[in-house]
Amino acid sequence: MDLGEVNHQRIKTNGIWLHVVEKGSGPLVLLLHGFPEFWYSWRHQITFLASHGYHVVAPDLRGCGDSDSPLSPTSYTVLHLAGDLVGLLDYFGEQQAFVVGHDWGAVLGWHLSLLRPDRVKGLMAMSVPYFPRDPVAKAIESFRERFGDGFYISQFQEPGRAERAFARYDYLTVMKKFFLINKTDLLVAPGGMEIIDHLQTPAVLPPWITEEELQVYADKFEESGFTGALNYYRAMDQNWELSAPWQGAKVTVPTKCIVGDKDIGFDAYRTREYVRGDTFKGLVPDLEVVILEGHHFIHEERAHEVSQEILTFLQKLSVE
Known about the structure:
By secondary structure, the protein is α/β, with parallel strands linked by helices. Helices cover 40% and strands 16% of the residues. α3 links the parallel β5 (97-102) and β6 (120-126). The radius of gyration is 18 Å and the shape is globular. InterPro entries: AB_hydrolase_1 (IPR000073), AB_hydrolase_fold (IPR029058), Epox_hydrolase-like (IPR000639). Belongs to the AB hydrolase superfamily. Epoxide hydrolase family. This is AB hydrolase-1 domain-containing protein.
C-alpha cells in the first residue's frame, strides 16, 4: 500500500509523547486503532480521506507503536485516553474533530463522545458498539462469571501471563493468530489452555492482507512489546469505577456504527440483535448502523467500502 508523503511527528499531550501520522488539510479526522494494531491499520483510509479534503491524523495510542508506554495498567483508563485526544485537538488548534475508531479505538471514540461531546463533530465506530455500563457488576467479574478463565479478556488480566504465552511464538505468528480469526463464536480457550494456543494459524492468507503487511505489525510489536496494548484490558475494572457518574448517560453526537457480520461473537454475544434493537438506539439517539459482510478487521478486509462509508458520513455532517 503506497501511502505517498505522510508526516510523522511526536506530540506532547497529557504528560506523554504520542507518535502520529498525518496527511492532508481541511477538517480534522482522528483515526483510532485497536488491538493488536498501531497507526498502520489505517493505511487504506489515510490517503483516501486526505485526497478528499480532510486533515487526517492517525496516532499510535498510548502503549502502542512509537508512542510512550506507561508501565502501570492504571494509566490506561478511558479518562487517560480521552485526555490524550483532547490534547491532540488542542495541539492542532481544533475545537472539534471527526473521530473514527476500530475495536479499542471505537471504545475510546464512544467515551470521548460521552465525556466531551463538545469536541466531537461526529463518531464512526467499527466492530464495537456502545454497551451500557452494568450498574452492579464490574466488567471482569461479569466476564469470568459468564465465560470463565478461558475467555481472552479474563486471561489478559494478570500482568505477564499473556506476554509469556505470546512469547512461545514468533511475532508474525501472533499477528496471524489475531488478525486472521474467522471464528464468530466467543474467544474462549478450553480449560487449562491459553487463548493464543487455542487460536489457529491459517496456512493461507486471505486476499485482503499480505505477509509483508502482517510483518509490519510483527516488527512494530517486537519493538514495543505487548504490555502497553494489553494494559487496556487490565484497566477495564478501573474504567467501570470511574465511569459511574455517567451511568445511564447517552451518546448524543451523530454516530455511524459499522460491524462485520462474521465478527467475533456477532451472534454469540447477540451483537446482531443488539445493534438492530431499541436499547442501542436509545443510548445513541443519532445513530446509523451498517452491517457489512466481513470479519473483525473490517476496515482492512473491506477497505474500499469502509473508506466510502467514512467519506459519506463526513460529507453529510460537513454540510449540516
